[in-house]
Amino acid sequence: MTPGELEGARALLEGARRVVALTGAGISAESGVPTFRGEDGLWKSFRPEDLATPEAFRRDPLLVWEWYGWRREKVGACTPNAGHLALARRALGGGMTLVTQNVDGLHETAARAVAGAADPEAALPLELHGALFRNRCTRCAALSEGRGPVDASCLETLPRCPSCGALLRPDVVWFGEMLDAKVLQASFGAAAAADVCLVVGTSSLVYPAASIPLATLERGGTVVEVNPHETPLSSRARAVLRGPAAQVLPALLG
Ligand code: BV8
Ligand code: ZN
Prior knowledge:
Blueprint: H1 3-14, E1 19-23, H2 42-45, H3 48-51, H4 54-59, H5 61-76, H6 82-92, E2 96-100, H7 106-115, E3 126-127, E4 130-137, E5 143-145, E6 168-172, H8 181-193, E7 196-200, H9 212-218, E8 222-226, E9 239-241, H10 245-253
Parallel strand pairs: 1-2, 1-7, 2-3, 7-8, 8-9
Antiparallel strand pairs: 4-5, 4-6
Helix pairs in contact: 1-10, 6-7, 6-10, 8-9
Bound molecules: ligand BV8 and zinc ion.
């Protein structure tokens, strides 16, 4: 990333009335959260179709809960990095909608840290794929907090619904499942109205999330990509900043 590229991207963002920021697992990499398809990728040791699908959960709820229990422990020890904080500060200033594919909750933690006693609302992200630390009942859909350790040693010790006693699941969107219609509509609506879509730390492989920047492009907006590596979106970006989010975002948004 050259100073000229950074200046060009800064000018695009400063000139934008409305910005949508779309983030993926890469923005949390420097917080210690493993990405999905990187070297230490989560999927490396597991295959998505083995674990992050409703079929897998029906077939082997113990294995799926064991994986999510491990992720909760790992992610629970992570804190937002300078990239999350820079985005939260910019979003609190107004004019930016934050949309994330991540389920780690680090954008929300960053929003509350930056807002302090002020209202964090403007920096709370639209969570396309749900939340790792939230449970949903497989029968009555009641939501509950899911932070503690998960005992996946047998069916009897798996998390149960406090209201109806049925088996709980992590409140995330699995492959083959629909995303929340309201969240999708808000995300695509914001992208269609945006002058710039800032795309940070995503391989742009998972749909429909990967279509969000296209909604900005279709309305004549531009894309700025922050990613150390090339992605299928890179060729559509007006500015590409090839660097890690925790370094690039403070320089870009600071
Ligand atoms: C659906 C939650 C259908 C669970 C996740 C074509 C069109 C439409 C759909 C499909 C299609 N083809 C296939 C599909 C189905 C599928 C899909 O897109 N598959 C892909 C693999 C091709 N989509 C779905 O199933 C979706 N549902 O379409 O429903 C439907 C329709 C009608 C009726 C019924 C159903 C649901 C998708 C959601 C799946 N759930 N997660 C959980 O987390 O446990 S997806 C999972 O991947 C995560 O959410 C993650 O966020 C997401 C995307 O990955 P990334 O975030 O991009 O992370 P990745 O590791 O891939 O990349 C990291 C990037 O960061 C890299 O580029 C790297 O270079 C960069 N990076 C690394 N370090 C840094 C960095 N960047 C910056 N700084 C750094 N330091
Ligand atoms: Zn229930």
